[in-house]
Amino acid sequence: MSQIINLGMMxxxxxxxxxxxxxxGVDMFDCVLPTRLARHGCFYDETGRKNIKNAKFxxxxxxxxxxxxxxxxxxxxxxxxxxxxxKEILGVRILSxxxxxxxxxxxxxxxxxxxxxxxxxxxxxxYTKWEDYKPLA
Length: 137
Description:
46% of the residues lie in helices and 10% in strands. It has helices at 15-23, 33-39, 77-85, 89-115, 119-129, and strands at 8-10, 28-30, 42-45, 48-51. A two-stranded parallel sheet has the order 1-2. Strands 3-4 form a two-stranded antiparallel sheet.
């Protein structure tokens, strides 16, 4: 009878941490980072971590998220910036839910690519867009 051993890491939660540790065999993660970053106005998009407090988001009417749940795709970056600036808890909640959804979606993509035996290609493609960290450069 073969044993299944699950490897878990705590306190590791950036998208690049997830990809690199899955690459090394880790399959469970637990981290407060997505919600902690949200409390400081940070969110993820396909190119990396952004801070909603930056001036460039003041007039940005594009959605903060493409998440179809909780109507997150109905809030503009300008509106969320306003909420965070005014210390409205809704801003933190929107960013928290978006960050969690972003990581859930990333993990689903990772699982799909592992199942299709294309994780190596996915990992390389991820870093062509990701601006925060380039381990393969």
